[in-house]
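On to our target:
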Amino acid sequence: MSAMRIGFLTVLGDEDNHSQMMSGVFERAEKSGASVIRFAVRENSGNYSETSEELDKMCQVIAMQHLDGLLFLGWMPGLIGPFFAPFLERFKDLPKVCLGVRTDLVENVYADSENQIEELIEHLILDHGRKNIVYVPPAYPDGRIKRYIKAMKSHGIYREELLIDAALLEGVPMDRRMAKVASILFDERKLEVDAFYVTFDSDAQGLYAELKRRNLRVPAKISVVSNEDSEFARFSFPPMTVVTFPWREVGYAGCQKLVQMIEGSPYVFSSGVPGKVIIRGSCGCRSDSEKFAGIESHRLGRAENEGDYAGISSITESMRALYPSSPLRIEALLEALVCDFTYDSALSFLKEFEDQVSEMIAKYPMRSSVDETEDFLYSLRSHLLPLLWGRTRDIVRLDDILLKCLVVVRENFVAINAHENIEVRKIDRRVHYLGQELTGAFSLSNLARILERSLPEIQIRSSYIFLAEDGSFDKLRLLVACSEERPCQIEDEVYPLYDLIGTLLRAHKRLLCQFLRIDNTFMGLAIFEPSVLDARIYETLTLHLSSAVRGALLHESLNQEMALRREKEKLLLHGANYDTLTDVYNRRSFERTLRIFTTPGDKHTSLPFYLVYVDFDDFKKVNDTYGHDVGDLLIIEISKRFRQTVRPYSCVLPQEVRGEDDSADSEAVFRLGGDEFTALVCGISDENMRMLAARLIQIVRSPYQINGDELQISCSIGVSRFPDDANSPEQLVKLADTAMYSAKESKDMYVFYGDMPIATGEERV
């Protein structure tokens, strides 16, 4: 049975959030033995009111693959709002799970942070005395707005003017939303605002910039909290208090649900993954280090059941339910804790915890996994306190153990953060240098060589670059294929789009697929097998590849165009110098050659030559009897015989006449038009010239088989000599023509002008 093949449709982003969701999907798929390909598109500038051409094209690609199921990010521009139902209809026969958005239209996994929203708003009210708290909704409002209103009303401070209606921001670009919000609140409504609750990370960044521009300090003047924990939230100044979005957990749970749907196992239609509140500095708090406070709230003294720790194992299932995607082995941790309590120790749990954290980080070296582990410790304490009620020594021991574990977590957080930054910085630098190299590739073969050398440095196992033939994605030309098993090479094979990626998934467990695109031009697909799960690396690489492929194709096209132009120029030159019927040189070439050969001072002037002038006898009868088509065929056959006969004695034509590609031994045979031919002969004696003229008479006289008819014709030849008879081109032609007409009086013969009697008053030139 072939492995399950899952598609994952998401957006490209400059934060690591999407990388975390991707890692959750990959992690759960690996446990099921499924293969996953992530299809990623640009965010369409965050404009949720417009369709996305890139998303539409990617959906065409997905529809052509033989996938078993599809995960998709529910709030993608071009999909959310009025575009959601048509998207579902498009893939109606494919099992689907929507990630991040709660909806009644399709199975979904969402971030259930509504309780935390109320918790955070109450924190602003009770701990910081904030009353004028503004809520900025997402583009399409959801259940969070109700929780905001509920929390504000419960404290009697709700005012409608503090709520920004989503309609007021409709069509406003994402990077201008908070400037618009500030203008509405401060300039139009003239409000005194002391706190903001924003839902988007991009809104948080925009708000920080706008408040700084208006000289409103955070948190001294205004508190800011967000519904998205991002790199900006963690490392801004001050760091931002947030309700976390469980990116990895949503990806993990979504993939798990899709696997259940495909396998026909029971599943819940809609399920939420809880977020959590992380207190940082933007709300006004100084520290989040007092989470273990509260020991004094428990009664001092020993409980009657002192030493009975069997109940600790009973919380295993509830902890597993809270952290279904956690790689921690909860049973082993609780067993170690029982051991510590039983033998009055603090080492068993700490050692087990350190070992498990080390294993986890080796496999999932991401900040999100450390964040969840820290949260796990707090939840574990809250579950254990009721079981240890009244046991002061046990509670103190528990807090001592957990505080040591927190130190382990914090140390690993610092290490992971440093490791991620260093690794990403190194890879970013290599990608930057790779981009510079690719810019100068100028050919697909050079591009392949650069990728073969550079891809291992940025830890990409395999890559495939497909070009859309004629702008259509029905068929794709595989330009470059690279993998660990074979070097990069130009394949130049055409593959149908149908099940193309499905075929690649048979060889790879995880793939990333992105468009090669410059502006609105879609050139093809870039497909990578990732090792480092930072999606931003592949987005940057794809941008470089798009530019390089376009440059190489443009360079290739330019070379082809130049070659075509040279060919056209050659054809034009050929047409200017050659007779179109017989492909011997024409009158123009004859006149140019004769002028060069007779020009004083030219290297050819010192060479004597014969001008042979040929005219057929009674050629008109052939045309009248057999038609002009047969007449043309006869002329072609005669010209072939002329060329073959004259070739050993032909003058060497000047380079100016021959052109670059004509060989030096081209026969100096010319068709002047109709049935008139000339030839220039050099390097033979008069006697041999007479023999050649006789030979020409004979070969013309030989019968011709044309269209089943046998034809015969004769010719008359006149010969003049340079410089003996004349030294100007016009006079040479005139004398040869005169000799030819003299021969025509008898026909089927040749006449040398020098053999003719000179008429009275005629002088040699």
Observations:
- DSSP finds 23 helices and 24 strands in the chain.
- The first strand starts at residue 5 and ends at 11.
